């Protein structure tokens, strides 16, 4: 019975992900359509490509059914934000001096997942 409930859990997550991605693609397609119709100027649009990574992280967080999905989604958000900050040289940060942020963020993800796994095993000993 445990496998069946886990299957339903994953199916609900997949359905949420499809809905969220569908809405995001409708929005993105609308932006491109407005650009093609000369209603919206999107010349600098591509400087924001790291936003796609952030959006993927947001989708993972919003559709999460497990703690691991949340931590991985948050890491994707950090990576997207880091890329944007590095590309734009915000706050004096660039790829050469800010890459340790990724190590720190991934370390936090690994540690948080380890703590969560440990707490889950204590609550559900088998």
Can you walk me through this structure?
By secondary structure, the chain is mainly alpha-helical. Helices cover 78% and strands 0% of the residues. It has 5 helices and no strands. Helix 1 (2-36) runs antiparallel to helix 2 (50-62), helix 2 (50-62) runs antiparallel to helix 3 (67-88) and helix 3 (67-88) runs antiparallel to helix 5 (100-123). The protein is flat. The two termini are 15 Å apart.
The separation of the N and C termini measures 15 Å
Helix-strand sequence:
HHHHH
Hey, roughly how much beta strand do the residues contain?
under 5%
The number of helical runs is 5
Compute the CA-based radius of gyration.
19 Å
Based on DSSP secondary structure assignment, what is the total number of beta strands? 0
Oligomeric form:
single chain
The chain-level structural class is: mainly alpha
Q: Spans of 5+ residues with little confidence (pLDDT < 50)? A: none
Tell me, briefly, the overall form: flat
Summarize the amount of helix as a percent range.
Answer: over 70%
Largest sheet data: none
């Amino acid at each position: 019975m445990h496998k069946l409930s886990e299957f339903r859990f994953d199916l609900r997550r997949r359905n949420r992900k499809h809905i969220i991605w569908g809405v995001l693609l409708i929005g993105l397609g609308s932006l491109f359509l407005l650009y093609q119709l000369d209603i919206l100027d999107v010349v600098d649009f591509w400087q924001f490509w790291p936003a796609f990574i952030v959006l993927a992280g947001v989708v993972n967080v919003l559709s999460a059914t497990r703690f691991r999905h949340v931590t991985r989604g948050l890491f994707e958000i950090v990576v997207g934000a880091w890329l944007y900050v590095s590309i734009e040289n915000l706050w004096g940060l660039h790829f050469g001096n800010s890459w340790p942020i990724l190590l720190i963020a991934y370390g936090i993800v690994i540690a948080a997942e380890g703590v969560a796994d440990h707490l889950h095993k204590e609550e559900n000993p088998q």
